[in-house]
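Input.
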Amino acid sequence: MIVVADTSPINYLVLIGCPDLLFRLYGHILIPSAVARELSNPVAPLPVRNWIGSAPEWLETRLVPEVNDSLNYLGQGEREGITLAETLHADMILIDDLPGRLEAERRRFTVRGTLGILAELQDVT
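Output.
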C-alpha cells in the first residue's frame, strides 16, 4: 500500500504521542519534501521538530520536482502531497486541510484525516 501524508496528521499524532500509529496501520509512509520542511520549521512545536529530526525508518521523504499548477490554491504541503500521490498512484493520502481533502477526493484518492486515522485504529484493535 502506498500512503502519502501531509503535515497536519503527522503533527497532531506526534503531539498526542501516537506517531507510530501510522506505521501500525499503514507501514511505510511517504512525505513530500515540503512536509518535511513544515515539520522542521522553527514555528512547529518542539516535539514535532525533534521527531522529524530523528524520523523513523518507516517515514520516507521524497522530492517533488514539479508541482501540478492546478493545485496552486493549496498550501505547499498539500500541493506536493497530492502531486506525489498522483505520481506514485498512491492508495491513500493523509490530510486534514478541507480544501486539500476535497481536491484529493475529487482526484479519487482515499483520504484519511487525523480523526479518521484514530477511528481506523479503533477498528483494528
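The chain has one domain: 3-124.
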